[in-house]
Structure formats: structure tokens, C-alpha cells
Design goal:
about 0% strand, 6 helices, elongated, about 130 residues
Amino acid sequence: MSIAAVTDGRRGWREWRSSRPFAAGLLLGLGGLELIGVSWSGLGFLRFTGTAGAASWALGALFIVAGVTVWRTPPLRYFAGVLAGVLSLVSLVAANLGGLLLGFLLTAVGSALAVAWIQQQPADDEKDA
């Protein structure tokens, strides 16, 4: 693999990442995985999760879908961000205190970033006189 191919790959990655709310999708996905992980790991004090375990799986899957939606279709970031914000509040009550607060914090910040993200306009090479 040549250096030019690596440079082109990095440039393509940077362009893709900067054209969408990357951090928002990443935090939403990580928060969803954390919610699932807390209920799946079977920690000593959460051995029998019951309905909170089912809620953790459902909410975690929805957060992952919201993160992928933010990455794949940036125009839907408002819908996905608001939905994730509401679901992050629901996770506090329904899913073991939002995945021991870490999942709640990740998804709340990710949803805020998704709603607040603004696509940057490409810089014009010509200066307006």
C-alpha cells in the first residue's frame, strides 16, 4: 500500500467524519452498549435484573439505532437527538438508574450534540469583493 493511498484514505475519513455529527453518534452508540452491558454482565448486585434488564436491552438498542441514524442520515439528527434525549431520561427510571448513571450521561450528551450540530458550509476559494 502506497503512502498516497493511506493519505487519501485519511482524507476521506476526515471528510466523512466532518460531514456529520460523528461525536454524537459515537456517544449514543457507546451509551446504548453500556446500558446493555450493565444488564448483561450480571454484576453481583444486579444479578436478577427483571423488567429493568428488558428495558436496558430495549433502550440500548434504540440508542444504538439513534447513533447509526445520526451517522447515516444527518438531516434526521433532530428527530434522533430529541428521541434519544427523552429516552435517556426514561432510562434513569426504567433501566437500573440509566446504566449506573454512565449510560445516562453518555446518551444525554450525545443527544445534545446531535441536536446542536450544524453542518459547516464549504469554504469558497474566491473572496467576495
